Each structure stands twice: as C-alpha cells, then as structure tokens.
C-alpha cells in the first residue's frame, strides 16, 4: 500500500516537473481517437480448438530447432480466445475510444477458402465486435495480420503466388459482410515486415528464404490484393460507413551526417521501407528510385528482367487512391549512412537498399535496442503531409518494449509523453492531420520470432510462472488513462522541441 502511494506520488511529481514549461495548449481534438492494439496469433491461443484450421504460424513454431528465440509458441498466448470479455473490459478501462484486433483467417475459414465456414470462429468475432461496441468503443479490425491458412500454403498459395489475391478477396468479402459494425478496416498489417520476414529472410512463418526475389513478389501481390479488396469494398458495400486502409510500418530515417551520400542513403532507406508501399497506393506505382535501383542491380547480376515485378498501366490506375486514411505503425528512428555498392554476384535486398543503420550514442534505447527518438515522429508526419498531399494519419501502432521484470514501466511513460507531444505539435504547429493513436499493445503478447522476450503491453502477463495468466496493470495504464480522459497533454519544450540537436 505504502509502496503504491510512494510510486504514485513520485510519478505525479515527475510529471508535474516535466510539465512546467508549456509549449502549446496541449489539447487533442474532441473527436480524436485513442485506442489499444492486438493481433489474433499474438493473443488468442486456442490454436486448434473449436474447428479452427491451422495457420502457417501454427506450423512454423513446431519446427525443430524452434525458429522462436525462447522456444515458445502462440498455442496459448494470452488465452484471449477464452478471456476476450475480460480483455475488452481491460481495454475499455483505459478509457479509450477504440480497440484494434485482427481476424484469424483459418479460425473463420479453416482451409482459407470461403466454401467451408467454421461457424464457431465466425461467432467469436461477431461477439467480440458486439462487446467492443457495448463498451462504447469503435472496432478497428485487421483482415490479415500474418496468419495465412496452412492449407493454402500447402497448396502453393502463398503471397508469392498471384492466385492468392482472389482467395484473399473472397475471405475479405466474407468477413466484411458478416461484421458490418466494424468502424475501421485494415486490409493488411505491415506488408513490408511480412514480405521481408516471411519470403525474404525467412525469420517469420512460413519461413521462406528467397532474399531479394520472394520478398518483392510478395510485395507486388499483397499491394494488388489490398487494392482489390478496397475496390471490392467500395463497389459492393456502398452503404457501409467504415473507412478502409492498409497499415505500413514507417520509422524515421535520419542521415548520419550532412554529407550528400548519407542524405541520399536516408532517402533510399525511406523509399525501400516505406515509399515502396505508400507510393503505389497514393501515386499508383513504385517509387522511381526503387524501380531504378532494383532494375539496375538485377541487370548487372545477370537477370533478364528486374527482380521487382512491374505494374501495368491499368494496375497503376487500379491501385492509386486505395485508402481512406494513412495507417502507420511507428516505433523508432535510425541513423542511416551510405555504404559502397556490393558486388553483383550475390542477390540480396540489403544490396538493393545499400545502407548501414545505427543509432546515436545519446539516444535512449528500449529493451530491443530501438532508439527512443520522439522528434522522429514529427518529422515523419511532416514528410507524409508533403509527399502524400496531407492525408489523415492514424497511428495504428506506436510503443516501446520492456523486459517484463517490473510493472514500473517508466520508459513507456516517457516514450508516450514525448512521442505524443511531438504528434500534438505536428498537428498544432505544422498542421498535419492525425485522427487517432492506437498504441501497441493492449497487453504483453507473443512477439513473433522473439517469443515472449519483449513486452509491449499496458497490462503485464507472467507467461513463464503464472498459469492463470493474470493481467496486471503497469504504471503506464494510469498515465495513458489520464491523457485519454482529458485528451490533454502538457508538453515541455525540452522533450518536444523541433529543431534542436536531439537527432544530430
Ligand atoms: C509490429 C507488428 C506487431 C507487433 C509489433 C511490435 O511489426 O505489427 O504485431 O509485433 O511490431 O514488435
């Protein structure tokens, strides 16, 4: 009790001290949407229950040796398939306006095809959506957060195969039709991470390593799949109010120095990681720099055509403008320097992007070694505004990892405070349009190939020692609650200053 009191008092003191210099009026718009995020494979568990089909992740985690650092799986994870009511309540307790979750494709359609429906799986998501609404929140649903039905993969239908697009559109149509109360649809979560990890370096399920080839095929197909779902949605569901978009992961890429080659390297990094996904949906084609570099290296490496498949003029037109908002997952900033052109006898994505990434010594880093650089988010927002004609941006993930040893997650409080201040300043001073912030994540969960090592949650779960998987609020819960309730944040120039020396 005494410990709790001291903790709360010191937190209050710390916040007041930091708040003594106000830079702006600190007010988010009244209709601003806060939330918390999760994804099916990372929290649900019940991997083979109630008629669920297997996903590529269910298979992948069973490989020997385990591809997951701590040899764990998502078989049980947070057991959210059973505790969904409790979890929705925990999210609602944060006072937020939205809950982002994802739909497990094989839980609804065990084979991936819509000819065989698992009614129990469908019922699960119907009830989940109702429960979210009951608590006054907007359901934000991701259609594909990386758990491809294994049956499709076994039959040659993965994201490197164009034929998957139609199967995906049918699945998307099915869930959209059956979940009419979803408020925001996210077609695909982080196509870059998915394509690179799943078909490039093989660190994620289904573990295909085809560096510099498979990842580009995946990118090409997944972008077309996104556009096809968007067009289908607008055509077939004209009365639905939900907005739809794809979610990209974009960090801030800061040149390591003012030398032109480092500045160019940072731009290359941006274009290969972020522009490659945003340019097609905003402008309709690959960024010219990416197109040129991959074509050029492919030629010199001896390929008869570019390893990056090209879009036809029709496809360019089809893809352009397929988003109602720009969904972005942002975590960190990297310091980017130039490297020499690699020899042409090896095909690798790293040779195409040709950068070296680092972090500055004065940056705070999280448990995962990611830099905590709040000004990066403001720079990124300004870049979006400039390059994509002032889109409505929604942060569909933003957050920082801890190591799970304490509930006193000061780093998360510092992180949110400083990042949110920069977002607010970008909105108020630079006039960028941000419509919501949905931090990652509601609770600690299975972090893909990193297992349970990194904890991003507002609520802690002791996966190793607690069979009850009790959800315990970390200190950041109260902090986040206070921001969400008041929609107000007092910003100190020291953390939110724009043109200071924090980055360089
Ligand atoms: C994102 C991903 C999430 C979560 C997060 C933190 O790339 O969409 O599922 O794992 O990273 O690592």
UniProtKB/TrEMBL annotation:
Q: What Gene3D superfamilies does the record tag this protein with?
A: Glycosidases (3.20.20.80)
Q: Which residues cross the membrane?
A: none
Output the Pfam families linked to this UniProt entry. Glyco_hydro_1 (PF00232)
Any one GO molecular-function label of the UniProt entry? beta-glucosidase activity
Read off the PROSITE patterns from this record.
GLYCOSYL_HYDROL_F1_2 (PS00653)
Q: Which UniProt keywords apply?
A: Glycoprotein, Glycosidase, Hydrolase, Signal
Q: Which InterPro entries match?
A: GH (IPR017853), GH_1_N_CS (IPR033132), Glyco_hydro_1 (IPR001360)
Which biological processes are named by the entry's GO terms?
A: carbohydrate metabolic process
Do the record's keywords include Phosphoprotein? no
Task: Using the record, list the residue span of the signal peptide; answer none if the entry has no such feature.
Answer: 1-18
Subunit structure and binding partners: Homodimer.
Please state which protein family the record places this protein in: Belongs to the glycosyl hydrolase 1 family.
What is the protein's given name?
Glycoside hydrolase family 1
């Amino acid at each position: 009790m005494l410990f709790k009191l001291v903790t709360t008092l010191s937190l209050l003191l710390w916040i007041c001290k930091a708040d003594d210099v106000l830079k702006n009026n600190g007010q988010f718009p009244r209709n601003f949407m806060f939330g918390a995020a999760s994804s099916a494979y990372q929290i649900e568990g019940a991997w083979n229950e109630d008629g669920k089909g297997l996903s590529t992740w269910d298979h992948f985690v069973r490989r020997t040796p385990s591809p997951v650092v701590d040899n764990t799986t998502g078989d049980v994870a947070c057991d959210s398939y059973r505790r969904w009511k409790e979890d929705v309540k925990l999210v609602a307790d944060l006072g937020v306006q939205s809950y982002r979750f994802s739909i497990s494709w094989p839980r609804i359609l065990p084979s991936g095809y819509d000819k065989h429906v698992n009614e129990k799986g469908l019922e699960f998501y119907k009830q989940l959506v109702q429960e979210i609404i009951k608590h006054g929140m907007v359901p934000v649903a991701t259609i594909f957060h990386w758990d491809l039905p294994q049956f499709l993969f076994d039959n040659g239908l993965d994201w490197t195969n164009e034929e998957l697009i139609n199967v995906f559109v049918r699945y998307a149509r099915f869930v959209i039709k059956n979940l009419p109360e979803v408020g925001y649809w996210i077609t695909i979560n982080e196509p870059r991470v998915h394509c690179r990890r799943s078909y490039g370096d093989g660190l994620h399920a289904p573990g295909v390593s085809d560096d510099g080839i498979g990842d580009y095929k995946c990118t090409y197909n997944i972008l077309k799949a996104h556009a096809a779902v968007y067009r289908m949605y607008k055509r077939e569901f004209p009365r639905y109010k939900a907005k739809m978009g794809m979610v990209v992961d974009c960090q801030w890429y800061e040149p390591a120095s003012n030398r032109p080659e480092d500045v160019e390297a940072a731009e290359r990094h941006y274009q290969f990681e972020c522009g490659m996904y945003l340019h097609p949906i905003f402008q309709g084609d690959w960024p010219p720099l990416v197109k040129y570099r991959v074509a050029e290296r492919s030629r010199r490496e001896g390929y008869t055509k570019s390893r990056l498949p090209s879009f036809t003029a029709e496809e360019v037109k089809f893809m352009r403008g397929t988003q109602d908002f720009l969904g972005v997952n942002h975590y960190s900033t990297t310091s980017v320097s130039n490297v020499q052109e690699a020899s042409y006898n090896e095909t690798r994505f790293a040779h195409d992007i040709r950068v070296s990434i680092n972090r500055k010594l004065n940056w705070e880093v999280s448990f995962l070694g990611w830099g905590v650089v709040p000004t990066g988010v403001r720079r990124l927002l300004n870049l979006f505004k400039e390059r994509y004609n002032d889109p409505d941006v929604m942060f569909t993930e933003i957050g920082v990892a801890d190591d799970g040893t304490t509930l006193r997650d000061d780093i998360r409080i510092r992180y949110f405070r400083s990042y949110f201040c920069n977002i607010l300043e970008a909105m108020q001073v630079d006039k960028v349009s941000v419509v919501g912030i949905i931090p990652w994540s509601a609770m600690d969960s299975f972090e893909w190939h990193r297992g349970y090592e990194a904890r991003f949650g507002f609520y802690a779960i002791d996966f190793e020692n607690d069979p009850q998987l009790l959800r315990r609020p970390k200190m950041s819960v109260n902090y986040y609650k206070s921001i969400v309730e008041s929609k107000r944040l007092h910003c100190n120039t020291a953390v939110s200053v724009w043109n200071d020396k924090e980055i360089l």
